[in-house]
Design brief:
By secondary structure, the chain is an alpha+beta fold. It contains 1 helix and 4 strands. Strands 1-2-3-4 form a 4-stranded antiparallel β-sheet, covered by helices on one side.
């Protein structure tokens, strides 16, 4: 009996190994793309929080009953970077007053101000814009002298 010793892999083994490697690369690429997307979304949320916090600090310094400055509601342009590309993103600011006495429209001693920051999430030519919102509330009271 003459048994030949075979060196190497069979075609089936090569196909299975190639398939397993391909699936591993596909999973890695998907994870990297999703992590980049989530990082960008997190960055935009942090920017919205910073804009809202800045606006809240200005409101805390605002004299109760004085008219609101025009720049409080002007859109704010922020330059961000996504996958190596610079992207200009616009954040809209919406301010709602419960009764308007904070800006002199009524004569109450308390008011509640809600600041909503709105932006469209999505980058690239094929991205569908998703509207995101971030809101903060501030209760203000007229100080008695």
């Amino acid at each position: 009996m003459n048994i030949k010793k075979r060196d190497g892999f069979t075609m089936t083994e090569v196909v299975i190994a190639t398939f397993i490697i391909f699936i591993g690369f596909f999973i890695m690429i998907t994870v990297f793309k999703l992590s980049a997307l989530h990082a960008t979304q997190s960055r935009h949320l942090v920017i919205a929080q910073m804009i809202a916090d800045s606006l809240m600090e200005e409101m805390r310094a605002h004299t109760y009953g004085d008219p609101a400055p025009a720049y409080w509601t002007e859109p704010e342009q922020v330059l961000t970077v996504f996958q190596g590309r610079k992207i200009q993103i616009s954040f809209e600011k919406k301010i709602e007053y419960k009764n308007g006495s904070f800006i002199g429209k009524k004569d109450d001693d308390t008011d509640e101000v809600t600041v909503t920051i709105r932006w469209v999430e999505g980058t690239g030519p094929h991205a569908k814009g998703v509207v995101k919102n971030f809101a903060e509330k501030l209760r203000v009271r007229r100080t008695k002298l």
